[in-house]
TrEMBL record:
Lineage: Bacteria, Pseudomonadati, Pseudomonadota, Alphaproteobacteria, Rhodospirillales
Keyword terms: Coiled coil
Gene source species: Ferruginivarius sediminum
Any single GO CC term annotated in Swiss-Prot or TrEMBL for this entry: plasma membrane
Signal peptide (UniProt feature, chain positions): none
Protein's GO biological process: cell adhesion involved in single-species biofilm formation; negative regulation of bacterial-type flagellum-dependent cell motility
A GO term for molecular function: diguanylate cyclase activity
Protein name: diguanylate cyclase
Superkingdom: Bacteria
The keyword Disulfide bond appears for this protein: no
PROSITE patterns: GGDEF
EC identifiers of the protein: 2.7.7.65
Coiled-coil spans in chain: 38-65
Keyword presence, Cell wall biogenesis/degradation: no
Listed SMART domains: GGDEF (SM00267)
Length: 236
């Protein structure tokens, strides 16, 4: 990240230097050899600026790829954890609370085994689009791996976030994926945990994962009570 910042600062410096050289050459009566030397310096500065801009773009592209899931275009695990840590840092400063949702497709292996991996990929993309379309711009959605997704509902109190969780759950249970001539219904289990100023990232994920496990094993297609990693059980 520091490399990007350094280059961003260098490019304007080169642009200013090039502009100064051009102004000096235009406004002063200088000998031709000096003007040619200044023109050469100007060309070199402009070329250096162009190369810096290209390098900056490549670095930013690599940074984006490092936190993006290739199939769905969502954040990957690394990107999601980075966003979650930033949200927890804000929570420690401001006291805001939020929620982490973990979503896992039901019987995903059966879809892959029965209809093939292209159908499984299509199911993942459908779920990714649904989640992305049902969160705010300040929220984050990620594919953590396999058929597991995560949603970060930032700066959201329990009362406000419950209808949103219920809406996501209901829409997940009504999904269909096109597998050739067959439309296969999808469903997903959801577990969630609340965070606050004293929350720990790893413990928060663990609590949401336990809630997801209960949803899958005890009451499929239902969101269980949310777990709080700082000692208060939050009911949906």
């Amino acid at each position: 990240m520091a490399l990007v910042g350094t280059e961003d600062e260098a490019a304007p410096d080169l642009a200013e230097a090039a502009a100064s050289l051009r102004t000096l050459a235009d406004n002063r009566d200088v000998d031709e050899p000096i003007r040619q030397a200044m023109d050469a310096l100007l060309s070199a500065a402009e070329e250096a600026q162009r190369r810096l801009a290209e390098q900056d773009a490549r670095i930013q592209q690599l940074l984006d790829l490092s936190v993006t899931d290739e199939l769905t275009g969502l954040l990957n695990r690394r990107g999601f954890l980075a966003e979650l840590r930033r949200a927890l840092a804000r929570s420690r400063r401001s006291g805001e609370t939020g929620m982490v949702l973990l979503c896992d497709l039901d019987r995903f292996k059966a879809i892959n085994d029965t209809y093939g991996h292209p159908a499984g990929d299509a199911a993942l993309i459908v779920v990714a689009q649904l989640l992305q379309n049902n969160v705010r711009g300040t929220d984050s959605v990620a594919r953590l791996g396999g058929d597991e997704f995560a949603v970060l509902l930032a700066d959201a109190c329990t009362e406000a976030v419950k209808p949103r969780i219920d809406s996501i759950k209901d829409k997940l249970s009504g999904l269909m994926v096109d597998c050739g001539d067959v439309h296969v219904p999808l469903s997903a289990s959801v577990g969630h945990a609340k965070y606050g100023p004293n929350s720990d990232c790893d413990l928060l994920i663990s609590m949401a994962d336990k809630a997801l496990y209960r949803a899958k094993t005890e009451q499929p297609r239902r969101v269980p009570p949310a777990a709080s990693d700082y000692g208060v059980l939050i009911h949906p």
